[in-house]
Automatic annotation (TrEMBL):
GO terms for molecular function: branched-chain-amino-acid transaminase activity. Pfam families: Aminotran_4. Pathway: Amino-acid biosynthesis; L-isoleucine biosynthesis; L-isoleucine from 2-oxobutanoate: step 4/4; Amino-acid biosynthesis; L-valine biosynthesis; L-valine from pyruvate: step 4/4; Amino-acid biosynthesis; L-leucine biosynthesis; L-leucine from 3-methyl-2-oxobutanoate: step 4/4. It comes from the Bacteria. This is Probable branched-chain-amino-acid aminotransferase. GO terms for cellular component: cytosol.
Length: 284
């Protein structure tokens, strides 16, 4: 694979980052994942805007213009011949060659790394046809989940707890209310009404969430942005999640309780179709 590190393209075997990098030592960095369908980027603009916000919230200098970032994404997709897959981008605070809790001098250049992941069949996923089974776990993450940091240990553990329970993913619960999935935003459907948690510091402001809610409203579906409990979710007609890498994913079971008839719901399936159609059309 050809990867990108700090202004240069190179084979992955030649790419290196300092052992003092704060991304490595302190999870002091942010990331974005952009899907590629038909060799084009899905919602690049949304990811670029959120990246700028994450960096600003952490006072990490924005080291690359949006135009250059787009060019790097496109070049990696071209060089690696990605038809369906992902582009991963990570920017960390870099390092001044030592370990210290205090941030290094503001002139220290951030570390910028991008690589691709080839995922043939990403859009036509068998998992989406089956629907996901989720378990609920306590949300014990930090309080700024709106910043897309590389601090992903707990979500990763949550995913493993789900696997050990024979399920696909975990929904995290705080004070009885669902926050989000380990790597996606969570929704329930009651009749024609789509319910998803309101934005705040408690969840990541999903790029896919914003697009899906817009399409839902355009299709005259009712959307309610509010907290819902895990018990309300188990009693819902259907449920689903959204993320840039899995689009709209139906959820068919929560903590062993089947939703509806235990197959992907009508609303989730329709939204997946609309999302993929519209986003393919707008891809760059
Ligand atoms: N919440 C969390 C915790 C996530 O990790 C992700 C995916 N990165 C999402 C939500 C979905 O966000 P997006 O639609 O921008 O991929």
């Amino acid at each position: 694979r050809t990867v990108y590190v700090n202004g240069e393209y190179m084979p992955e075997t030649e790419a290196t980052v300092s052992i003092f990098d704060r991304g490595f030592l302190m999870a002091d960095g942010v990331y974005e994942v952009t899907s590629v369908l038909g060799g084009k980027l899905i919602d690049f603009e949304g990811h670029a805007v959120r990246l700028a916000r994450s960096l600003a919230e952490l006072e990490i200098a924005h080291p690359i213009s949006k135009e250059d970032l787009l060019e790097v994404h496109r070049e990696l997709v071209r060089a690696n011949e990605i038809d369906e897959g992902l582009v991963y981008l990570q920017i960390t605070r870099g390092s001044d060659g030592d370990r210290d809790f205090a941030f290094p001098d503001p002139d220290t250049p951030p570390t910028v790394v991008l690589f691709t992941q080839n995922k043939p069949g990403l859009a036509d996923s068998p998992a989406a046809k089956r629907g996901a089974k989720v378990i609920s776990i306590e949300d014990i993450r930090w309080g700024r989940r709106d910043i897309k940091t590389v601090q992903l240990l707990y979500p990763s553990m949550g995913k493993m707890m789900a696997k050990k329970a024979g399920c696909d993913d975990a929904w995290m619960v705080e004070d009885g209310f669902v926050t989000e999935g380990t790597s996606n935003n969570a929704y329930i459907v009651k009749g024609n009404r789509i319910i998803t948690r309101h934005l705040g510091n408690e969840i990541l402001h999903g790029i896919t969430r914003a697009a899906v809610l817009r399409f839902a409203r355009e299709a005259q579906m009712e959307v309610e942005e509010r907290s819902f409990t895990i018990d309300e979710a188990k009693a819902a007609d259907e449920a689903f999640t959204t993320s840039a890498s899995a689009f709209v994913m139906p959820v068919v079971e929560i903590d062993g309780v089947a939703l509806g008839d235990g197959t992907p719901g009508r609303v989730a399936s329709r939204l997946r179709e609309i999302y993929l159609d519209e986003m393919r059309r707008a891809a760059v």
